[in-house]
Amino acid sequence: MSTLLEVSGVSVTFDGYKAIRNLSFRIGEAEMRAIIGPNGAGKTTFMDIVTGKTRPDEGRVIWGEKSVNLLRMNEARIAQEGIGRKFQRPTVFEDQTVHANLLMSLRNPRGSFPCLFYRPNRRDQVRVEELAEEIGLSGELHRKSGELSHGQKQWLEIGMLLAQEPRLLLVDEPAAGMTLAEREHTTDLLKEAAKTRAVVVVEHDMEFVRRLECKVTVLHEGSVLAEGSLDHVTSNPQVIEVYLGR
Amino acid sequence: MTRRPFILRNPSILIFLALLAIFTAAVTLMSEAFGTAMISTSFVKTLGKTLCLCLVALAMDLVWGYCGILSLGHFAFFGLGGYMIGMWLMYARTEIIVTESLANAAIPPTDQEIVDAIGTQIFGVVGSSDFPPIWAFAHSLPLQLLMVVLVPGLLALVFGWLAFRSRVTGVYLSILTQAMTLALSLYLFQNESGLRGNNGLSGLQNLPGVAASQAVVSVWFLWASALALGLGYLLCAWVVSGKFGSVVRGIRDDEARVRFLGYSVEGYKLFIFTLTAIIAGIAGALYYPQAGIINPGEVAPIASIYLAVWVAIGGRGRLYGAVIGAALVSLISTWFTGGLVPSVPLGFYTIDWVDWWLVLLGLSFVLVTLFAPKGIGGLFDLVSGRFAPDRHGADYGPDKGSLQEEEGRG
């Protein structure tokens, strides 16, 4: 399997604190990966680096067949390259309808002028309806997204992510604050997405990770501690000591 | 798929344009020049100026209410627009006077002599007679009209590019815009600025080569201001509708999220900032010929703060709110500061409203912010039955400029 994203030898220091130390990570196309680790292990910082929010002190982040250096790009440019990100707290545009949220996220030219003269066409309308169907919000298309429940907002954000048609999805704690039924739906959405693209899920909840049935990377103090199937890593004595043992 | 025309999708635009047309027609029919003379010419001018203030408030609402950039410098662009049109008005009018007075001379004057005489006339007050380079286009109306758009537009483009590129946001950006307008005002106060220092440009109410009386000219300007406001309203409403509007409101509420969707936030901010600066410049170019005089005091930092107060009182994030706020506050302000409101004798002290008006304005601003964040425009929600969802005190997004709970529309 060809590599989609390769992070190698990355380190970040915040005010003298080494958040990420010599981290290396790679993911192929159409692969699901879970990242677990205790608080402060550098999971969110890792996502910040890949999406361009944080600049690492050293290391390389290489993307795609053409091996583009992501560190030279800003957040918007990286998103256009095909990296979508879902935040821990559901962040949707609450003052706008579900429809507007999805329409804004659809893969279309992102410049000011194309947007100013944009007219919704048949294809985009159909796509918005399909996505709403997929995330179970067909009936809520014309409601303000601020009125949605917490779980619905999480799905809407996943829907917005899918609308971007990214090649890599970075998902930060998607199941936080969800009911059991909502979690199952979320698992299905992510598994479906991982059939056609790479998905990286950061999660605390071991049950949720188990349901994803994928390779797991354990982060600890800013570097990779173990990698492999969930059973493999959970039987690793080091992992048990730093994470599961507590 | 058929889409209803843009105007029909936004009925508030039609209502606004209809009211504006009725207002303009009514004032025309009551004016001294075209009607029953129920309204004095000076009041027609006040109303025309008010329309221009509504237009600049519209620009402020676009940049602050929709894009979340609390710019406290938009009156600088307004003033620049006024200066640009003022240069032509002064030049052309002085040219006519000078040509007439030199026409009787024994030897016909050369072009250079005429230009020198105009320079002496205009710059005599600041002890100079040479035209500074910035007056290079003042002889031509089309070129100077172009400057009305270009000068505020370019200043906003350069300033905005520097500020947004460095990701200056929130209160720091507001301070930066205040610094810009203060710097501009201080620069214009200098005699060396080439715009007659603190004398400013005057006699702007006289249109060169137009014989019509002020009564007629005042109505013309009222029409022009109403037309500009109507077109400006249409333009702003079009810009904030559709996907562009979605992105811009997204930037107001959660800038980082918009960035991760792949939109270049800086580009959008720059677009809105520059567009609103141009609208402000055009509003200024229509305002100052009606005011008759412009001086550097007009671009003082406080003017831009008033602009934000108008929009806040009228209702941020809704275009008609900005218009209502600007019209109401500036007309009431004219009324109070014009000495028309009777003083209140308290026995030990007499409240003279000319002095106390600012206190009243400040108080009402505080009260509106505390108790009616939707502003006066929010009253329309009572009629249309739209209410904000209960968000338990949460704003619509993490950014400083994002809508507050009470401002939202259900």
UniProtKB/TrEMBL annotation, chain A:
Domain ABC transporter span(s) in chain numbering: 5-246
**Statement: the UniProt record of this protein carries the keyword Transport:** yes
One GO molecular function term of this record is: ATP binding
Cellular component (GO) terms are: plasma membrane
SMART domains listed in its UniProt record: AAA
Q: SUPFAM superfamilies, per this entry?
A: P-loop containing nucleoside triphosphate hydrolases
Tell me which PROSITE patterns the record gives. ABC_TRANSPORTER_2 (PS50893)
This protein's UniProt keywords: ATP-binding, Nucleotide-binding, Transport
Family annotation (Pfam families): ABC_tran, BCA_ABC_TP_C
Q: What PANTHER family would the database entry show?
A: CONSERVED COMPONENT OF ABC TRANSPORTER FOR NATURAL AMINO ACIDS-RELATED, HIGH-AFFINITY BRANCHED-CHAIN AMINO ACID TRANSPORT ATP-BINDING PROTEIN
Q: What is this protein called?
A: Branched-chain amino acid ABC transporter, ATP-binding protein, putative
Q: Which organism is it from?
A: Pseudooceanicola batsensis (strain ATCC BAA-863 / DSM 15984 / KCTC 12145 / HTCC2597) (Oceanicola batsensis)
Automatic annotation (TrEMBL), chain B:
What are the GO cellular component annotations?
A: plasma membrane
Q: Keywords, A to Z?
A: Cell membrane, Membrane, Transmembrane, Transmembrane helix
Q: Where are the transmembrane segments?
A: 74-91, 141-164, 171-189, 220-240, 267-287, 293-313, 320-341, 353-372
Bilayer topology: Multi-pass membrane protein
Classification via InterPro entries: ABC_transp_permease, ABC_transptr_urea_perm_UrtC, LivM-like
Major subcellular site:
membrane
Q: Name one GO molecular function term.
A: branched-chain amino acid transmembrane transporter activity
* PANTHER family membership: HIGH-AFFINITY BRANCHED-CHAIN AMINO ACID TRANSPORT SYSTEM PERMEASE (PTHR30482), SLR1201 PROTEIN (PTHR30482:SF4)
Q: What is this protein called?
A: Branched-chain amino acid ABC transporter, permease protein
Task: Look up and give the organism this protein is from.
Answer: Pseudooceanicola batsensis (strain ATCC BAA-863 / DSM 15984 / KCTC 12145 / HTCC2597) (Oceanicola batsensis)
